[in-house]
Amino acid sequence: MLKLGVPSKGRLMEKTFDWFGARGISLRKSGSDREYAVSVDGFEGLELVLLSAGEIPRELVAGNIHLGVTGSDLVREKLVNWDSRVAELAPMGFGGADLVVAVPQAWVDVNTLDDLDATAAAFRQKHGFRLRIATKYHRLVREFLREQGVADYQIVDSQGATEGTVKNETAEAIADITSTGETLRANGLKILDDGLIHASQATLFRGRRNDWTDEQRKKLKALQLVLGI
User: For a FRET experiment, which of 5, 6, 87, 170 has its CA 20 to 30 Å from that of 71?
Assistant: First the structure.
């Protein structure tokens, strides 16, 4: 039996069901919104498991599920050396959003990461502490800024309403997911010209654990043929 982890609610769940359905495999959730009764038709030996999108990377690595649908940003954020622990089987073409660095629109001379680096150095000299960047994507942001040579900043954890942290004066800049940029603009923020950290979308992943049985490997190959991936 292959266990497939799918987001348990919302548009990600619905779009995942549609994606599999278009390829001849029917995934269904039965009962009320609070119930987790599920069924799979169209492929024998596939079991559906409903989880939060944020749980799926961890469950893949733990071996509790064999396949999982979640955002590519979540896998990269939650898993150290992610590509040695899970493999991308297929980008699914929905759930798209960009993880970006954004600064106040009032910073008219700050449009690039080089500008941000210079501003951060000046900020620390003036205020005596490092410029604060609010985000929940600590790993991705740190790796990106290190690669781009940005220093003299500190990460401020933000698990919700990150766009409002600058207006609330708990951060000077942010790194967050956006689809259209409208919420950023409404909060007086602009995306840096070279501030794209990761273009995320829903992706079908498989675990790379070496404890798969021969039967499970055969099932995966058969499933990939059905899905055309």
Answer: 170
